[in-house]
Design goal:
about 15% strand, TIM Barrel, 10 helices, about 375 residues, alpha/beta, binds flavin mononucleotide, two-stranded antiparallel sheet
Length: about 375
């Protein structure tokens, strides 16, 4: 048994978490017709409710915001009802759950867009990456640059989605500002060459993320709002020439807005933590509330980062796929089960809800 602070309760905004382990958002492409999460999704999250906090898979705020097949939405009544089953199931198990709000921007495909149109982006620059559509990985489609007059509508879609999330029973929302999606496409200069108030300077590139965050706060309150960022991650073909200046500024502004947490993907998402030099301590010092650290953590790294006060909470992604009882396994020192790469994206129960808790008898 371990007596380390990873397993101690923690007050996040107005909710108390039973431990400092967060389930990171994991897209699993199993929504039903109308992009509604089904009963199986409620079962999947309930199995993982011993996490101090679950952050849901990324969930599109509009059809335009969708970039992969069978991902869930939060913009129709049916989607709200589907999510209500999820939040009820998690709460019945004593868990807490935030919804991750997502607009993919240029990481999409014409087959997923309204009327088969091009995906939208800050600038008409295609990403060198693939999306998952029609049951296979294909190049993303050529995007078009958003007109200035369209931006307020997207901000409003985030605002409405946050309201819908609370209606569906979520404890809060996480604005997805990471991993090469729309809000990061604005923030990083490799994908933003606009010459209006939303491009150019660090301040201008940050404007969209801050307007969205302010709208969400206005709707549901700062204590129920978090933001995910990935300062140096090249995920989804993105680049930034000045990440330290850009993200120091972003975090200063998010701190001023008073949000409950920042969720920082340290390094390349799902890859090396040291992909590029970056001072995460600078973000930690600039932000007075909760710092959630993610990327490549195991028990030892999580324990030492909490002990050194580098973070308040540690988010684990991939380990939660094959280990619904990850918290108990980490606490008891049980081995972690691997997951099957073939069943990550899409399908049914196989590789989704059929991973068993640890069994001392079998040693697995
Ligand atoms: C299958 C899979 C799906 C993911 N989906 C999301 C997502 O929906 N939103 C997000 O912000 N990150 C997503 N990520 C990134 C994870 O949240 C996390 O940052 C990454 O796996 C690194 O953490 P880990 O080393 O603990 O796995 C995904 C990662 C994987 C492996």
């Amino acid at each position: 048994m371990s007596d380390n602070s990873l397993f101690e309760p923690y007050a996040l905004g107005s909710v108390t978490l039973s431990n400092r382990i967060v389930m990171a958002p994991l897209t699993r492409n199993r929504a039903g017709a109308g992009f509604v999460p089904g009963d199986i999704t409620a079962e999947y999250y309930a199995q993982r409710a011993s996490a101090g906090l679950i952050i849901s898979e990324a969930t599109q705020i509009s059809q335009q915001g969708q970039g992969y097949q069978d991902t869930p939405g939060i913009y129709t009544d049916a989607q709200i009802e589907g999510w209500r089953k999820v939040t009820t199931a998690v709460h019945e198990k004593g868990g807490r759950i935030f919804l991750q709000l997502w607009h993919v921007g240029r990481i999409s495909h014409v087959d997923l867009q309204p009327n088969g149109g091009p995906p939208v982006a800050p600038s008409a620059i295609r990403a060198e990456t693939k999306t998952f559509v029609n049951n296979g990985f294909v190049d993303v489609s050529e995007p078009r640059a958003l007109e200035l007059y369209e931006l307020a509508g997207i901000v409003n879609d985030f605002r409405q989605a946050a309201a819908n999330a609370i209606k569906a029973g979520f404890d809060g929302v996480e604005v997805h500002g990471a991993n090469g999606y729309l809000l990061e496409q604005f923030a990083k200069d490799g994908s933003n060459v606009r010459t209006d108030a939303y491009g150019g300077s660090v301040e201008n590139r940050t404007r969209m993320l801050l307007e969205v965050t302010a709208a969400v706060i206005e709707e549901i309150g700062a204590e129920r709002t978090g933001v995910r960022i990935s300062p140096v991650s090249p995920a989804n073909g993105i680049s930034c020439s000045d990440p330290q200046a850009q993200f120091d500024y972003i975090v200063d502004q998010l701190n001023a807005l008073g949000i409950a947490y920042i969720h920082v993907v340290e390094g390349a998402t799902g890859g090396p933590r040291d992909v590029a030099p970056f001072d995460y301590g600078s973000l930690r010092r600039r932000f007075s509330k909760t710092y959630i650290a993610n990327n490549g953590y195991n028990l030892d790294l999580a324990t030492s980062h909490l002990a050194d006060d580098n973070a308040d909470l540690i988010a684990f992604g991939r380990p939660f796929i094959g280990n619904p009882d990850l918290v108990a396994r980490l606490q008891s020192g049980a081995p972690l089960a691997p997951f099957d790469p073939a069943t990550i994206y899409g399908g049914g129960a196989a590789g989704y809800t059929d991973y068993a808790p640890y069994s001392p008898a079998s040693g697995k």
